[in-house]
Amino acid sequence: MRKILVCQHVPHEILGTLNPLFKQNGFRIRYVNFGRHPHAKPSLDGYFGLVVLGGPMNVDEVEKHPHLGFEVELIQQAIKKDLPVLGICLGAQLIAKALGAKVFKNPVKEIGWYNVCLTEEGKKDPILKHFRPTERLFQWHGDSFDLPKEALHLASSLDCEQQAFRYGKKVYGFQFHLEVDEPIIERWLKVPGNKKELELLKGQIEAEKIDQETPLYVEKLKMLSEETFGEFIKLFGVEKKFKGLASR
C-alpha cells in the first residue's frame, strides 16, 4: 500500500477533499501533528509523497515553532528523492523557502473568495488544465513569497502575485485553499484565532460576506479540487478513481 506523509500545523487545517481521493486510490495517510508534537522528526522512508498543509504561523518563526526548520529540511529531502510534493498556503511558503526563495508579508491579507488567474505556464500545466483562465478560489493568508529559481509561475491574484508554482514535474505550491468544502469553511470562521483575526480586519474583510459567497462558489471549487488533485495523484503512477467527493 502506498503511504503519504502529511504535515499538519493546526487541528482545523486538514486534507479536506484530498482525503477521500487518496483513500479511493489506495493510499494510507499518516498525519504528523506538529501543533501537538513540535519536536517530531518523521522520516520519509517508505513514503511515496509529502503534503504540507496550512497554518497561521510565518515560516521564519522557528523559535516559537521549531518544527518549521525541520519541515524545510524534510521538503528538501523529498525533492531529492523525486517524490511528489504538495504545499498548501503555509505549505507552499515552506516549499518556496526550501528552494531558497524569500517569504514575506503580503501587502494585504486575502481571506475569503478571490479571483485567481492562470499565467501562460499555468494554462499549459498538466494538473491545472481543468481551470478556466480565471477562477474564484478560497483564500486565508497574510504572507507571500518570491518565485523560487527554476520554478514555473502558474497563477496570480490581484493582490498576491504568487498563487501557484511548479518546481520540476512533481512539486507544487498552492497559496489558495483548493481542499476546503463548505463545512470546513464554516469551521474556520468559528475558530477563536480566526474570529479574532477577522475582528481586527472588520471593514476590510467581513465574515458575513464570506458566508454569503461560499454557497455561490463552493460547488465549482469541489469540482476543481477533484480534477486537480486527481491529476496530482497521477504523479504517483496511478490513475485517479472518480467516485465523487462526500461533504464533510
The chain-level structural class is alpha/beta
CATH superfamily: Class I glutamine amidotransferase (GATase) domain
Total individual domains: 1
What is the strand content?
25-35%
* Straight-line N-to-C gap: 25 Å
Write down the CATH class: Alpha Beta
Total count of strands: 9
* Secondary-structure element string: EHEEHEHEHEEEEHHH
Largest sheet: 9 strands, mixed
Q: Regarding quaternary structure, how should these chains be classified? A: single chain
Shape: globular
Going across the biggest sheet, name each strand in turn.
2-1-3-4-9-8-7-5-6
Number of helices: 7
Average pLDDT number: 94
- Share of helix, binned: 25-40%
Low-confidence segments: 242-248
Here the CATH topology equals: Rossmann fold
Task: Supply the CATH architecture.
Answer: 3-Layer(aba) Sandwich
Q: What would you say this structure looks like, in words?
A:
The protein is an alpha/beta fold. It has one domain (2-236): 3-Layer(aba) Sandwich (Rossmann fold). It has helices spanning 18-24, 67-80, 90-98, 120-124, 182-190, 192-200, 207-233; strands at residues 2-8, 27-33, 49-52, 85-88, 103-118, 134-145, 151-156, 164-167, 171-174. Strands 2-1-3-4-9-8-7-5-6 form a 9-stranded mixed sheet, sandwiched between helices. Strand 8 (164-167) and strand 9 (171-174) form a beta hairpin. The relative contact order is 0.16. Residues 242-248 have low confidence and may be disordered.
